[in-house]
Amino acid sequence: MSTHRHPPLRSRVGLDAIALKPAECDVSSAADAAVDALAIDYEGRAHLPDEETLAKLAAESNATIRLTTPVRADGFDPLGDDSLLESLPEGVGRVLVAGHPAYLSPEEQRRAIAPRFGAALETDPDAWVGTESVERIAMATGATQYDLLTRSTERTLRALRTAGFDGDISVYAPTVLTDDPDAVLDAIGGYVARRRPVARALPGSDGATDSSATGRTREVLLEAAGDYALVGTESEIRDRVAELRTAGATTIVGYPARGLDELLERVRDR
User: Fold this and answer.
1) pLDDT tier for residue 3 given thresholds of 50, 70 and 90
2) How many other C-beta atoms are found inside a 10 Å radius of the C-beta of residue 258?
3) Which of 3, 9, 109, 127 is deepest in the core (most CB within 10 A)?
4) Cβ proximity of 264 and 39 under 8 Å
């Protein structure tokens, strides 16, 4: 087990968990991050961590490990080829998602989502369910909801709690631990620009979205950054996370948009 060389991100910035993109980092490097959970994103089979890596991470980390598995993809399809599930080590949980079309073949994209969520939860009732593009189907499962932070997240959380939903709701958010606007745009400008409401508000489709953005484009992107990501100093992010908790979120998962090392080092050095 890890002894945690890094101070708890929960106390510093409010994060309960870290999302890892295996195409960008060695997921093993997060073993000593003092968080409750590590969520490994799915970026195609070419970047899927192997069984040995996952087993080592589960053994060395005090965090719960969760691997994102698209239920329509061969290898993770509970109604078809689920061969990759056999290689998941003990101690590695799952995040069930419909799957981004970029990582699915045309045939996989045509597969029905709802029955696959249901079948997967029969064998893994503790799995989280990603809600992006399938919110109603995900809600119908009653499992832990895994939401992407948007400008309407707090309103939606309050509405769900008011309506009586008492299940767990995890919120995923790109996290940029800086108040430098140029650094923010370099880290998440492109991501923010792809959100539909932001894309509609931008003055044109060909403008730069990084630190070189100017004028109205820069203004729109920086304003939207606070809606779609956790951005700012430790105290600013901590306050934003507290607002999400008050609205009804139970777990906050931060994706370190400037790199895992940057987030851990910035927190450790304070």
Assistant:
1) very low
2) 18
3) 9
4) no
